[in-house]
Amino acid sequence: MSPPVVQPPVRDRLRIAIQKNGRLSEPARALLSSCGLSWRESPDRLFCYGETAPVDLLLVRDDDIPGLITSGVCDLGIVGRNVLLEEVSLADLEGQPYNAKELRALGFGGCRLAIAVPQAWTWTGIEDLRGRRIATSYPGILQRWLDDAGIDATTVQLSGSVEIAPRLGQADVVCDLVSSGATLAANQLTPVMDLMTSEAVLVGTTQPLDPARAALLDMLLRRLDGVLKIRDSKLLMFRAARTALPELMSLLPDAESPTVLGVIEDDDAVSLQTLCHGVVTWQRLEALQRAGARGLMVLPVERMLA
Ligand SMILES: Nc1ncnc2c1ncn2[C@@H]1O[C@H](COP(=O)(O)OP(=O)(O)OP(=O)(O)O)[C@@H](O)[C@H]1O
Ligand SMILES: O=P(O)(O)OC[C@H]1O[C@H](OP(=O)(O)OP(=O)(O)O)[C@H](O)[C@@H]1O
Ligand SMILES: [Mg+2]
């Protein structure tokens, strides 16, 4: 007799997969903490039980995150867009649909996936890749990009240290992640074309969630939107002559709905407060001061709910 099929119990807690060790681990945790989540560490440090909300964390290799979501083991994940797009591309090349998608871009882990060629080459354009061997850890993204461009080339799949492949004679060029460009330069390579720009993204399933988890996801997205919106925002306050307002406003193109208040016993003066979404540098403050602003104050914004 075959063993009975055991259905997994219905989960009423949300489960988020993040990278265990690596570039995205700390910023991902910090972002979720700033959404009011906290966890109890388990002895194995692989599963963290949500304390302030029924939202648990799973700590894994980043490559495993998309699969954990498509298989329904986790509801959400934080991973580089490059990793998600690779899985989407591989499914697409096989004519399969993919049931996970990017829900939010998170503004950290920025890098790009680029083609880089030996510095000795004179690069004339994408046609130069025809018939070449390209080393990469992203065969799916690369293949789709080559197909779109109608270029026939050979992919040499490597899981790391891709930049060394041309020097070892394994490949002619590389297709790898670039941030500062230091690794390429150290290997005498020059970036010539970008396939994509990447940053950490929140990934979720395209399948409907049960009502309990759907409500938790809604709550998390609302908090996340509030955090992302104000992350680089500051509350700016100053006083000025009423007549100086037009010039001052022209210096604040990123100011959101400024509030202008009257000043007691000075009809010609106003007090202004506004949310600035760009970075408020000393140079900006000095420009405002030259235009007549006085008593300038820049205040951090801790939370915002639309
Ligand atoms: N040099 C870089 N600068 C900025 N972001 C990067 C850089 N390299 C990679 N990233 C981004 O950070 C993500 C994680 O990079 P990391 O090197 O930690 O991954 P990994 O070695 O594959 O980790 P894991 O052990 O979890 O598999 C990448 O998928 C990419 O989105
Ligand atoms: O442009 P740069 O700032 O030099 O960064 C790019 C390098 O960073 C990543 O490698 P990582 O350091 O994670 O090593 P690995 O991929 O071999 O694990 C990426 O794979 C590149 O090799
Ligand atoms: Mg990885």
UniProtKB/TrEMBL annotation:
Single GO MF annotation: ATP phosphoribosyltransferase activity
Pfam families: HisG, HisG_C
PROSITE patterns with a match to the protein in the record: ATP_P_PHORIBOSYLTR (PS01316)
Pathway annotation from the record: Amino-acid biosynthesis; L-histidine biosynthesis; L-histidine from 5-phospho-alpha-D-ribose 1-diphosphate: step 1/9
Keyword entries, A-Z: Amino-acid biosynthesis, ATP-binding, Cytoplasm, Glycosyltransferase, Histidine biosynthesis, Magnesium, Metal-binding, Nucleotide-binding, Transferase
Cofactor: Mg(2+)
UniProt-listed InterPro entries: ATP-PRT_HisG_long, ATP_PRibTrfase_cat, ATP_PRibTrfase_CS, ATP_PRibTrfase_HisG, HisG_C, N-reg_PII-like_a/b, N-reg_PII/ATP_PRibTrfase_C
Known EC number: 2.4.2.17
Activation and inhibition: Feedback inhibited by histidine.
Catalytic activity: 1-(5-phospho-beta-D-ribosyl)-ATP + diphosphate = 5-phospho-alpha-D-ribose 1-diphosphate + ATP
Domain Histidine biosynthesis HisG C-terminal: 232-302
Coiled-coil features, chain-numbered ranges: none
Localization per Swiss-Prot or TrEMBL: Cytoplasm
ATP phosphoribosyltransferase catalytic domain segment(s): 61-225
Domain of life, per lineage: Bacteria
Family recorded in the similarity comment: Belongs to the ATP phosphoribosyltransferase family. Long subfamily.
Function of the protein: Catalyzes the condensation of ATP and 5-phosphoribose 1-diphosphate to form N'-(5'-phosphoribosyl)-ATP (PR-ATP). Has a crucial role in the pathway because the rate of histidine biosynthesis seems to be controlled primarily by regulation of HisG enzymatic activity.
NCBIfam families: hisG, HisG_C-term
The name this protein goes by in its record: ATP phosphoribosyltransferase
Designated gene of the protein: hisG
